[in-house]
Write a structure and sequence with these properties.
The structure holds two protein chains of two kinds. Chain A is of the alpha+beta class. Chain A folds into two domains: 14-243 and 512-540, D-Maltodextrin-Binding Protein, domain 2; 285-510, Dipeptide-binding Protein, domain 3, CATH 3.10.105.10. Chain A contains 16 helices and 22 strands. Chain A has helices at residues 2-24, 31-41, 72-81, 128-140, 174-180, 186-189, 248-253, 267-272, 302-311, 314-321, 352-362, 392-403, 416-425, 444-449, 469-480, 484-501; strands at residues 42-43, 48-56, 86-88, 93-95, 98-103, 109-114, 153-158, 162-167, 210-216, 221-226, 237-244, 259-262, 276-280, 285-291, 326-328, 366-367, 373-374, 382-388, 408-414, 430-436, 504-510, 513-517. In chain A, the strands form six sheets. Chain A has a six-stranded mixed sheet with strand order 15-21-14-20-18-19. In chain A, helix 12 (392-403) links the parallel strand 18 and strand 19 (408-414). Chain A starts with a helix and ends in a 27-residue tail after the last strand. Chain B is mainly alpha-helical. Chain B has helices spanning 2-29, 50-59, 66-78, 92-127, 132-146, 149-163, 182-220, 223-230, 235-257, 259-273, 278-287, 291-319, 321-330. In chain B, helix 4 crosses helix 7 (182-220) and helix 11 runs antiparallel to helix 12 (291-319). Chain B is globular, with a radius of gyration of 25 Å. The chains are: A alpha+beta, B mainly alpha. Chains A and B meet through helix 1, strand 11, helix 7, helix 13 and strand 20 of A and helix 6 and helix 10 of B.
């Protein structure tokens, strides 16, 4: 009830803001004055922007690798202060604290050469010892975001500035994970016993481009200032401030913040506004339809799942559910923005004739007076579809599309906790599952679709009742393949198999819009696997 | 009389026990558990592994029998321990204490403003009963108080902050600045609090206005006013000493009784203005599914309402001696 009310309120607020903005088109005399003020903020001699302000207002924790809160905004603030061995740009991993790395042929050894001239923010020099210390310390005290499992690797220092990691087994995503661990100074952390409670000023000393200059837990405000002795590319922005914002669109209009997410309704307004750039975010979040094939013999038929794919109009879903701000799902699961997306996978499109043909071949050749298709045993194509209360519209659209084919859905909407509990217990026939992380390492396909029963670790709960030995083998193979090209080939093949078998259907990936004041700062970029402009460190640094 | 007081104390204690029990039972009656997050509407959420979930289950004592949990919950409460926040990894009581002053500041300022303005306008309305001014006030104040506070708030925010630029758009104070004097700091905090307080006052003005108006109208018709007028007392004296004083009783009670609903209103208004009080904290807690924190906030708000009721009881007795004597006769 409370949540419903909240949503209603949110909608009302959005409506009100939109109508107010429309009115305000007719007169707002403050903009010119504001422009002048902003020009002052840009220090022309150095071409550094004095300050970029972003939406804050909710506490994300003290930005150490141990005390930030688990959500994204907490992690990336910490990453402004702490560097990893590698960093992410638009296309993939780039060298960062490491100036070079080598991977042995068997994929078990990683030799990183650490930069020489790196300084901690307290003036001490950073060395290979710090790197070794970080990995040993974090295997004893796991950081908020665990990248490398304890005992997954052994670390030793080689020579002056090299660190050798030896993994117990080859692992394709290990490089990515090793590279992302924030390196912490040994001289500060070695005596700390409870890192979660270590909230001293020294706790936020890293090698990164920014220092924490001000933080208020109560107000959710942060101020980061450029670290003058930073080893790497020069900061384009001298200070980054996170301030409380009541209404983000209004705050953006008033130039209180320099970047905000906007809905499709506001697109025309901002696209034409001078000095404002609008970009669509990459689609790394998605809704997928999951089948419980174990408890429903009907769904075990691949052809039925294919027929459902043919009956769905995913573009229509994007249009009506996301108001155009999204990308239709790929049958190969990986979204089109993913670096290993296979553009050649089977594209179902909407093809009702084909869908009907498949169903008739399966024996569902009769239709009763309610328009529901059934076979000679009297088995009807009626399913329960479970959704979260926030996804009810998408379910209705899906029901409308499937009913044309004679498939009937009873939609059951539930609040989050009940819904998640159902997902966890596999207590459903069909369920729409929304979640993120679709841009990450494609090893997540293994977590979703691996169903080998030989090894207990891999008994998956996500695709119950589905099994394809060829797929299992490929999923296992890609995991250990450290040759990136070969791995990409395997991932491409996996996507083709998934598109053919349809163990899940990716419905669509929402991809909203972000507007920013390009006349103030325009160095924003997306990392290859993430959809936020403010999260990448490189967004604030000089690029070549 | 002592017996009556005793009954009252037991009544309050029972209410507290019911609230505490509900607060304990409701989250546990929900399916699943707070650490199970499978789907998300937001980005970048860390989904806990089975081992981590078990660890948290143990940490929060959720693996113990329900009666044992209840007893230890009551024990913790008696020690003022509201538990550990799941998301913020900090004592719930510490987090709440940090935010509570801001909400209290809003609520108390509103109560004072609203009572003064509401009773003043109500008295004027009653005095001019039936003429244009009365009708004008009546219609407008009732209309305004029927609009939900967050809509009024948004309108006010848009007009005074966004369009006219007279007040800040959000927050409770200026950030990343140092104040030169205490006075400067006070002015800054008042500047930030002005719109939220006005919004809350406007939204809650109608009730007090109506009450004051009715109350004054009733008093005006009393015989002792005829006497007062006949004595030739001045208008001001009649209004203050004879009318307002007698009409104040229900207003005072109402003021305390409404403290609870004001906290509810403050929750909405804080969200509109991004004001760092309990309301905003509650929204954050709901967003991150922090059950211990939500429980803690509910408990504090519920206790606040109870205390307000108790105060209304006591003050009413003090102001109106008739209540005490009635109780005496019944006992």
């Amino acid at each position: 009830m409370k949540l419903k009310f909240k949503r209603l309120r949110k909608r009302l607020i959005t409506l009100l803001v939109i109508s107010l903005l429309v009115f305000s088109l007719f007169g707002c005399g403050t903009e010119e004055a504001m422009d002048e003020q902003d020009v002052d903020l840009i220090d022309e001699a150095e071409e550094q922007v004095e300050v970029v302000r972003l939406e804050g207002g909710s506490d994300d924790g003290y930005p150490t690798p141990y005390a930030h809160y688990s959500r994204g905004p907490g992690a990336y603030k910490m990453n402004l202060i702490f560097d990893g061995l590698l960093e992410r740009d638009e296309d993939g991993l780039v060298l960062w604290l490491a100036e070079d790395y080598e991977v042995s042929d068997d994929g078990r050894q990683y030799l990183f050469t650490i930069r020489n001239e790196v300084k901690w923010q307290d003036g001490e020099a950073m060395t290979a010892e710090d790197v070794k210390f970080t990995f040993e310390y974090s295997s004893e005290h796991p950081m908020v975001r665990t990248r490398v499992e304890p005992d997954e690797v052994e670390v030793e220092v080689k020579g002056d500035n090299q660190v050798l990691f030896t993994a117990s087994e080859p692992n394709a995503s290990l490089l990515y994970n090793l590279g992302r661990v924030p390196i912490i100074p040994k001289h500060i952390w070695e005596d700390v016993e409870n890192p979660e409670d270590y909230l001293e000023e020294e706790a936020v000393i890293g090698t990164g481009p920014y220092r924490l200059a001000d933080y208020s837990q109560e107000h959710g405000t942060y101020r980061f200032e450029a670290f003058e002795d930073f080893w790497g590319p020069r900061q384009n922005v001298k200070a980054i401030e996170f301030i409380p914002v009541s209404e983000d669109i209004m705050a953006f209009e008033q130039r209180e913040i320099d970047l905000t997410r906007i809905g499709t309704d506001l697109l025309p307004r901002f696209e034409k506004q001078e000095g404002v750039e609008v970009v669509q975010r990459p689609a790394f979040w998605g809704y997928r339809l999951r089948f419980n094939m174990q408890d429903n013999a009907q769904l075990e038929d691949k052809e039925l799942r294919q027929a459902i794919s043919y009956a769905l109009d995913l573009e229509d879903m994007v249009e009506r559910d996301a108001r155009g701000a999204g990308v239709p799902g790929s049958a190969g699961i990986l979204p089109p923005d993913h670096v290993m997306y296979n553009p050649e996978v089977k594209n179902y499109g909407q093809n009702l004739d084909k869908a009907e043909e498949l169903l008739v071949d399966l024996g569902y050749d009769q239709v009763n007076e309610d328009g529901i298709r059934y076979n000679e045993d009297g088995e009807k194509l009626c399913f329960d579809l479970f959704v979260r209360d926030s996804t009810i519209r998408l379910a209705e659209i899906m029901n409308e599309q499937l009913s044309e084919l004679g498939i009937n859905l009873s939609i059951r909407s539930e609040e989050r906790q009940t819904h998640d509990n159902r997902l966890h217990n596999n207590d459903y026939q069909l369920i729409i599952h929304g979640g993120g992380g679709w841009g990450g390492d494609p090893d997540y396909l293994r977590e979703r679709f691996m169903t080998s029963t030989d090894d207990e670790e891999y008994v998956d709960t996500q695709s119950l009742g589905y099994e394809n030995q060829e797929l299992n083998q490929l999923l296992e193979e890609q995991r250990y393949e450290v040759d990136q090209e070969r791995r990409e080939e395997i991932i491409f093949e996996i996507q083709e198999l998934l598109a053919e078998d349809v163990p899940q259907i990716a419905l669509y990936y929402p991809a909203g819009y972000t507007a920013y004041r390009a006349d103030k700062y325009d160095g924003w970029m997306f990392m290859f696997d993430h959809h936020s402009l403010t999260h990448p460190k490189l967004s604030y640094l000089t690029r070549e | 009389m002592k017996k009556v007081r005793g009954m009252r104390v037991i009544e309050y204690l029972l209410t507290v026990l019911v609230i505490v029990t509900l607060n304990f039972a409701l989250p546990r009656a929900m399916p699943g558990d707070p650490f199970l997050i499978m789907s998300e509407t937001e980005e970048d959420v860390v989904v806990l592994t089975e081992e981590q979930r078990e660890y948290y289950f143990e940490l929060y004592g959720l693996d113990k029998p329900i009666t044992e949990q209840y007893v230890s919950y009551l024990g913790d409460l008696l020690r003022g321990d509201l538990g550990l926040s799941i998301y913020y990894n900090e004592d719930v009581s510490t987090i709440i204490l940090r935010r509570l002053p801001w909400t209290l500041f809003l609520v108390i300022s509103t109560v004072i403003l609203r009572t003064i303005i509401g009773s003043l306008l109500g008295t004027i309305s009653a005095w001019c009963r039936g003429n244009f001014f009365d009708q004008f006030l009546f219609f407008n104040l009732i209309t305004i108080s029927e609009i939900p506070a967050f809509i009024t708030g948004l309108l006010i925010l848009f007009v005074f902050s966004a369009m006219l630029g007279l007040f800040p758009l959000s927050g409770a104070m200026s950030h990343f600045t140092t104040y030169e004097s205490l006075w400067e700091q006070i002015v800054d905090i008042l500047h930030h609090a002005f719109l939220p307080i006005i919004t809350l006052t406007l939204a809650r003005l109608g009730g007090i206005y109506l009450l004051a108006r009715n109350s004054v109208i009733t008093v005006i018709q009393k015989d002792y006013l005829v006497t007062a007028r006949a004595k030739g007392l001045s208008k001001g004296r009649i209004l203050l000493r004879h009318i307002l004083r007698n009409a104040m009783l229900p207003i005072v009670t109402r003021t305390f009784l409404s403290l609870g609903s004001l906290v509810g209103g403050a929750i909405l208004v804080e969200n509109v203005f991004n004001y760092p009080g309990l309301g905003l904290l509650m929204q954050e807690a709901v967003n991150v599914h922090d059950y211990t924190l939500i429980q803690g906030i509910f408990l504090v708000v519920a206790l606040f309402v109870l205390v307000a009721n108790l105060m209304a009881d006591l003050i009413y007795k003090h102001l109106d001696p008739r209540i005490e004597s009635q109780e005496q006769t019944t006992s």
